[in-house]
Amino acid sequence: MNYVSKIFSGLVAVAAMTIFTSCDKERSGATGWSYNEEENGGFERQEYVEQETGPGLVLVEGGTFTMGRVEDDLNFTWDNIPRRVTVSSFYMDETEVTNQYWLDYLHWLRLVYSDTYPEIINRALPDTNIWREVTEYNEPMVDYYLRHPAFRDYPVVGVSWLQASDYCVWRTDRVNEVILIREGLMNYNPTGQADEEHFTTDTYLAGQYQGDASAGGLKDYNPKGTGSRNVTMADGILLPRYRLPTEAEWEYAALGLIGNSFQELITDRRTYPWNGHYVRNDDNGGRFFGTIRANFVRGSGDYMGVAGYLNDNADITAPVYAYPPNDYGLYNMSGNVSEWVMDVYRPLSPEDKSEFRPYRGNVYKTKVLNSDGSVADKYDKNIYDVEGVIYFLQKYQEQAGAKLTAGDLTLLEQCNAKVAAATEKQKERKEDEAQDMMQECLDLITDSDSPIAPDLRDGVSDYIQNAPGELRTRNVTVEENIDRRNYRKSDYIDYVDGDFNSSIYYYEADKEQDKNRMYEWGVTTLVNDRARVYKGGNWRDRAYYTIPGTRRFLDERRSKSTLGFRCAMDRLGSPTGIGGKE
Questions:
Q1: What is the tens place of the pLDDT at every residue in 155-190?
Q2: 516 in the Ramachandran plot: left (φ > 0), alpha (ψ -120 to 50) or beta?
């Protein structure tokens, strides 16, 4: 065989091998068994490129930065001591959640719950009365800000931390539902979802929601299966949960130092989310030279500038795209409204939290399981915070005092009796019966003609913890974590700052009496386990609060006309994405 013939024969052999390999199934590098074949038992490996970017989100590439104070501490709180930390890549909303997005949320709640559980809709209503001030005329905002189309692209306000967290859960479910519909794995079902029979990501994954059965599923390669199956997280189709960003994530994203970095060198430190130390645009000769960069108060009594040249063009909040984004493409990280983050507030958190993904507020929960290991049935009723309702009823009666009529007092007595009975059932670990008692309490209120009934209905509704259709969860216990070293109990909110061992009473033997002794809420401080951090400046603030390192706190059940939020999402896999630096 001559030299040319040998080369030709070799090329033919290579081509044949290539064809054979490409036709062959992908095989496990560990066992050699092929994937996605029924003949060998149906081991599966799904095609996957990278995480889909959810609606409204932008990727924030993570890294290390100095978190905390970057200039003088004007309030002398000493609660944002500088510390270098690392934040993993994550996704974040490019804007604050708007009034339109919240109205969409309320519309869905009415579709699903209005016939049987109208109190759930009531729980989600923003507090529009937070616009009222005793020496200001703000009634138009009370009446129109949330619902009038003139404000639909403005940030929603009057939303508590708990309400914002509930919205994140709802948004996760609606995004994953529409992904399944887009992929042909589920059909729209607007009239078939009511009360507990509605789509949530968790109930779908647990096999407790099927939706319109006419939609197909994924091919099931398991020879013992039915030929098709529901989507699982292992398929890479569903997105992770929307959530509030952590304090570290929010601050890191607000600074946008990616615009000031060259390889591993950060060339310029930032005070604000933009370069320089000025709150005005200092691009000499540029179109916007001299304009204010964000929506905040420039000085005493100056909320928007002078007529004919309204500098920030906003007397209250502004549309969410009103000002240029930072280097991550995020709008209004320096003004407009302050924003809720996940963290529980402690003044010494910068010293206590880890240097990797720092966060305070972990409460570890797990799904409730049946004795055979299957997931327990989802809730078919409202689940109330019994202690919270007791607190509300006591405070209401104290504040109302002598104004209460005999009928009012009778209604309160009946409610207190139901709540007391629920407490006893909880002590007996009869949670379902306890929650039935709480629903009877609300039924008494809604059936009453007492003038205080609307107040009681609103107050009790605020303490709904879970709605029908959600999976049952519980706090993890010490006994199920025997020999575990990374954590043991469920609640670590007050870890090393507020727990018994960190208080001045650490030497006492009787620890059972301890209930966060370091922070005497309502006596010496307003800090407790419900105090949540919020970040950033707002339309009522001076420029100091537009610095990302500043931090403030508010009770998770309260809200303000200057406080909104935006959602975040975990980034899974590569921190940079396709085409990024690996």
A1: 999 999 999 999 999 999 999 999 999 998 888 988
A2: left
